[in-house]
Each structure stands twice: as structure tokens, then as C-alpha cells.
Amino acid sequence: MTQTPVDPATSPVSPTLSAAEEALATSTDAASLAHSVTRSAQIEADLDVNPDRYRMLTGVRPTGNMHLGHYFGTMHAWKPIQDRGVDTWILIADYQVITDRDGVGPIRERVLSLVADTLAVGVDPDRSTIFTHSAVPAANQLMLPFLSLVTEAELHRNPTVKAELEATNGRAMSGLLLTYPVHQAADILFCQANLVPVGKDQLPHLEQARLIAQRFDKRYGRAVKKHPVFRRPEALLSEAPLLLGLDGEKMSKSRGNTIALRMSADETAKVLRKAKTDSDRRITYDSAARPEVANLLRLASLCGAGAPEELAERSGDGGAGTLKRITTEAVNEFFAPIRARRAEFAADEGFLFGVLHAGNERANAVANETLEAVRTAMGMDY
Ligand code: TRP
């Protein structure tokens, strides 16, 4: 794709945003994906050399109890990245809960539960920042200037927004759902995060955040004066292993087919006993033909019990019963220390609130600074 070079000094952000829109539209194409993969690998290598160059932000929605899909998808990576010396920020995305549903549910309980999970997987509140959307007004205020930098068409085209809309089963698109990439950009940009762990499907979000940063700095002359207000976030690409729910469908809280981090060993055994398998007594690892059996083998394997093929061999002719026993033991052994820590934290509500308040305070300090820089850049620092 060739683009007419624009002079950032004179070109206003065009009302049609055509060049930038094209850039966004191509963000998922092969060339740009390859670029993201290469960059991510470079960053991965640089993290050990220059961890202090990075601030990592990740966000989780408090929609229910965190489960093993969340753990092996993202949460397992938080402690290692923190322990490499990267400034680690965990956003409990409470405002995101209202993007695609009508109410917030038992939000207080869910947020606290998520704080406990976060601590249980090894996030250290003295070194890392755990905070919620709703407690950081200055971050949310960025929505207004940011919304002026995107077009409606661009938002409608965002693949993640489309996917989110489809997931709501015919619910009408709310203004917040449509502008959800802008809100997420505000999350990333207010705290000056330059590293966001994402799966490939989330790359368009990051591209949108980068575009907003770029357009802001260009519109308010910061790109030209070389004092950009915002950092340019980059993706740390991760591949989540495929874990299905215990019924063989997509793992999700609403289907009731998950193993929650907070479950006891007995509860885990109980839900695993009910897991869907098949009637073939000989256990084999065959994802296509026997997805439910393969899923349990993969789960046990993720918990360190050995390769799926090896575990299938070990189950032999023992059928689903043996397979479930092996899986239950593996899950319970792997999660025992995490669950023990979780139980301790969860028993101390005062401590959990303390962690959240300290995180929110830190987030507010940074958000206020960023908003101050934004107002100055916009000439609104009266
Ligand atoms: N949208 C993310 C999700 O659905 C959560 C999230 C909100 C997030 N804000 C973020 C992730 C900022 C990374 C950065 O899981």
C-alpha cells in the first residue's frame, strides 16, 4: 500500500481520516501481523536486558470467577513478567462490564474475588498496580478528546467490536460498546503503558490505541515538537492454549462448564467427574475425533502431568474414569499452592480493599499527570 506522505506540521487530522483508516483496516492483514510477531519477539528478548523500559498493562473484566481458561490464557504470565522487573499494571475493567450487558451483577464481590485471584497467582501489590476503571476519573476523561479523533465508520469496522456485538446474541449496539476500543485506548494511554499482552485477535485494539495517540500528538502539535504526550503501546503476543469447557463447548462462566481457580480439590473432582467424554475405554489423544477426551488430556498436561500422548498411554484401557482421575490429580496438585494463597487473601477483605485502594491511588496519580499534559497540549490549562 502506498500512501501520500503528509506533513505532520501542517496537515490537520483529516475529517475522513482516510489514510489512517486504511492503516487500521490493514492492521489484521498478513504483513502487519508478521510485523507484530517480529516486534513482539524483539521485545520479548529485550525484556530481560531492559525491563525498566517497559510498563505492562493488562485488563480483565470482573464478570465472574476466574477459571482455568483465564489462568492458562493470561494470568499465568503476570508473575513472570513482574519478576523480570517490568512495571506491571493489572486493570480490573469494571466499566467494561456494562459494555455488553444491562447490569453490573454483584460487582463488588466479583472485583474483590479478582483481586484475590490476582494476588494468588503471584502479583505482588508492593511492586505492581492493581486498579479499577471506575476509580480513575482522569483516565475516563480522556474519552472526550479521544472520541473526537475517531470516526464512527472506523469504530463500526473494528473486528473486535463486531465480535463483541455478535457475542451479545442480538442485543442492540450500545454507544459504549461501539466506543469500547476508545475506552480501551484510554486505559492503555493514560498510564503510559507501552506493552500490552494480547492474542492476535486483539491487535486491532492496540492499533486503534496507537492511532489515537498519534492523532492526538499530531493534532495538538506534540508530534512536531517532539514531545509526544503519549507513548506508543506495542503488543506482546501470546498464544492461549485451546481449553474447552467440561462439556466440550467454549469454556465460559455462563455455561457453567468451568473449573474456577477458587474451587476446592473436592469441588474440582466433582465437576471433573461430570465432564463429558466418550464411551471408548481406550484413551487416545485425538483432538479432531475425540475433542472432550483430548481436552482433559491437554488440561492435565498444562498442569505439568506430562505430554498429552503420554497421559493417554498411561490411562490405557482405564476409560474416562482413569482419565478423569489423572486430570483431577494434576489440576489439584498444580493449583494447590495458588488456592491456598487465594483462600488466605480472600479471608481478609480489609487487605484486599487496601490493595485496591493503593493501586487506585497510584493509577490516579499517573492519570492526573497525563490529563494535565493533555490539557496543556490542548491549551486548556487555565
Ligand atoms: N478488553 C479486555 C477483555 O475483554 C480487557 C481490557 C480492558 C484490557 N482494558 C484493557 C486489556 C486494556 C488490555 C488493555 O478482556
Concise description?
The chain is 52% helix and 6% strand.
Protein architecture, described:
This protein is mainly α. The chain is built from 17 helices and five strands. The chain has helices at residues 18-25, 30-49, 68-73, 78-83, 107-120, 137-141, 143-147, 152-157, 159-167, 175-178, 180-190, 203-219, 265-273, 291-302, 308-315, 319-346, 349-377, and strands at 55-60, 87-92, 129-132, 195-198, 234-237. The strands form two sheets. Strands 1-2-3 form a three-stranded parallel beta sheet. A two-stranded parallel sheet has the order 4-5. The longest helix has 29 residues, at 349-377. The protein is globular and about 75 Å long. 40% of the residues are buried. Residues 1-22 have low confidence and may be disordered. It binds tryptophan. Tryptophan binds next to strand 1 and helix 11. Residues 57-59, 61, 91, 93, 96, 184, 187-188, 196 line the site of tryptophan.
Keywords:
382 residues, two-stranded parallel ribbon, 17 helices
Radius of gyration: 23 Å
User: What is the helix/strand order?
Assistant: HHEHHEHEHHHHHHEHEHHHHH
What topology, given as strand order, has the largest sheet?
1-2-3
Looking at the structure, what is the overall shape? globular
Compute the average pLDDT: 91
Counting helices, strands and paired strands, the structural category is: mainly alpha
Strand content: 5-15%
- Sheet of most strands: 3 strands, parallel
**Ligand types:** tryptophan
